[in-house]
Every structure is written in C-alpha cells, then in structure tokens.
C-alpha cells in the first residue's frame, strides 16, 4: 500500500499566447487537490525549456546530460509522479507540438503510470487531440484511463469566475476520472514497487 497521497502531475499543454488552458488547468487542479488522494503539481510547458530539436541519441539511451539544464526540474517532476493528467486544446484536429516535444524528450518517466485527459476545443471538445494522444502514450508504455473531461465550445463553457457553467456535470465527470486515476495510480505504484517495469526496446 502507498504510505501517502499519490503524486499527480497536471500538465498544461498549451503554450499559445492568450491560451485558455490556464483557466481549465486551475479549475481541474483545484478539484484534484480537494479529492484527497493526490499531491498535485502543475507542470506548465510555457515555463519550461522544451526544444523541438532532439539530440542524436534516442530518448531510450539518453542521459540527463543530453537534456537542456532548464528541462531537468520538469524531468524530475515527471519521474516522481505516480499519475498524469494532460490538459490539451485541439489544434487542426490534433494536439499541440509542445506536448509531442515533452513526450519525445522523455521515455521511462511515463512507463507503467496512468494518464488522464482534460480537453477543450470547438464542437469536438478536443476529443480528436485526446484520441491521438492515447496512441502516443501507448507507445510509451503508459496506461490511459477511459474517462475524461471535455469542453466543447470552451469559450461558452466557463463563467467569469473561472468555473464551468455546468458545475454539476463537469464536476461529476472530473470525480469519475479522479477516482479512476486514484485506482490505477495506486495499483501501478504497488506493481512498480514489487516488480520494476523494464520492457524490451
């Protein structure tokens, strides 16, 4: 059994000027803290050195020395996390390049850990971005959970107080997602403790 709260990294994926993701992330991180199962750490990619140019050495063989010094605190947070939530917009039927860069710079940090998604966009609510992220995280040996939270027409979905207009519906969906993250996070934490997960390349 875990001896304390699970470490949950909530990743704000948008780095766009005027981004709405800060509103969504602040709301969700607040609910995650209230849930009681998690120690929440918000990871803002706009505040991290995240080059698009990768080193010659593949991530599977890379060491910390190959990562920019400004990225190391973020890498440490990912490695320490028991679970992740990715907050993503949808750009052109997909997810932001910043998220792909984050994933590609790391490998073992995602392994055998659960990943949940909160998305926002136009009519689809960002779900096309989420479906593509599920494929990417599967390659990283992460376990994406079924239920998430999506905000179609996000510009109409939140009030001036930074909370969703449909408090009951979105709050209920967020709780289902957090309950699943807590279950998977605990189960995989114990599994990694008993048997380190080292898949063949």
TrEMBL record:
Lineage: superkingdom: Bacteria
GO molecular function, a single term: FMN binding
Listed InterPro entries: Flavoprotein-like_sf, FMN_Rdtase-like_dom, NAD(P)H-dep_reductase
Ranges for domain NADPH-dependent FMN reductase-like: 7-155
SUPFAM superfamilies linked: Flavoproteins
Recorded GO CC terms: cytosol
Pfam annotation, one family: FMN_red
Name the record gives this protein: NAD(P)H-dependent oxidoreductase
Native source species: Streptomyces alkaliterrae
């Amino acid at each position: 059994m875990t001896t304390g709260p699970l470490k949950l990294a909530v990743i704000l994926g948008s780095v766009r000027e005027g981004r709405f993701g800060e509103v969504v992330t602040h709301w969700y991180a607040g609910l995650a803290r209230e849930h009681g199962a998690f120690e929440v750490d918000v990871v803002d990619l706009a505040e991290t050195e995240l080059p698009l140019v990768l080193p010659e050495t593949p991530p599977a063989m890379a060491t910390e020395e190959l990562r920019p010094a400004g990225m190391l605190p973020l890498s440490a947070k990912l490695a320490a996390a028991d679970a992740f939530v990715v907050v993503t917009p949808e750009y052109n039927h997909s997810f932001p390049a910043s998220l792909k860069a984050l994933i590609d710079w790391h490998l073992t940090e995602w392994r055998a850990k659960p990943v949940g998604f909160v998305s926002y966009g136009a009519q689809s609510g960002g779900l096309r971005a989420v479906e593509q992220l599920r494929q990417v995280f599967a390659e990283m040996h992460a376990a994406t959970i079924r239920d998430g939270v999506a905000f179609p027409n996000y510009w109409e979905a939140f009030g001036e107080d930074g909370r969703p207009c449909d408090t009951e519906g979105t709050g209920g969906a967020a709780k289902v997602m957090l309950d699943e993250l807590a279950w998977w996070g605990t189960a995989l934490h114990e599994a990694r403790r008993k048997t380190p997960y080292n898949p063949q390349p």
